[in-house]
Design a protein that fits this description.
The structure is a single chain. With 122 residues, the protein is mainly β. Helices cover 0% and strands 52% of the residues. The protein has strands spanning 2-6, 9-12, 17-24, 31-38, 45-50, 57-59, 67-72, 77-82, 91-99, 111-112, 116-121. The strands form two sheets. Strands 2, 4, 5, 6, 9, 10 and 11 form a seven-stranded mixed beta sheet that branches. The protein has a four-stranded antiparallel beta sheet with strand order 1-3-8-7, with no helix packed on it. The radius of gyration is 13 Å and the shape is globular. 32% of the residues are buried. The model has no long low-confidence stretch (mean pLDDT 96).
Length: 122
């Protein structure tokens, strides 16, 4: 199984980025897909998750209204659209997968990508 994130980069505060995570080696449509992030010196934290059929979506409360998550099962891809970015959104963003149901705890995920860096300048 391989999860490959892309779309990170450097952006000014108020800007937008769209992260992508392409999965291979698993039946993507049977997996919940999540995004976590880890800032320097901090623990990894939950960002968002979408369950296997897209009927259950959750976000970190502080991100609601700025971030959206979506999936394209035909492309084995999950997206994280990030708008109105703030300096505190700076982190490495990780994609993760687990069977079927959405969870917000990192250790409940079976597979992880290597991460993509997002840096927001204030």
């Amino acid at each position: 199984v391989q999860l490959v994130e892309s779309g990170g980069g450097f952006v000014q505060a108020g800007g937008s980025l769209r992260l992508s995570c392409v999965a291979s080696g698993l039946r993507f449509s049977n997996y919940a897909m999540a995004w976590f992030r880890q800032a320097p010196g901090k623990e990894r934290e939950f960002v968002s998750v979408i369950n296997w059929i897209g009927s259950n979506i959750s976000f970190l409360d502080s991100l609601k209204g700025r971030f959206t998550i979506s999936r394209d099962n035909a492309k084995n891809t999950v997206y994280l659209q990030m708008n109105s970015l703030k300096a505190e959104d700076t982190a490495v963003y990780y994609c993760a997968a687990r069977p079927f149901e959405a969870r917000i705890i990192a250790n409940e995920y079976n597979y992880w990508g290597q991460g993509t860096q997002v840096t927001v300048s204030s």
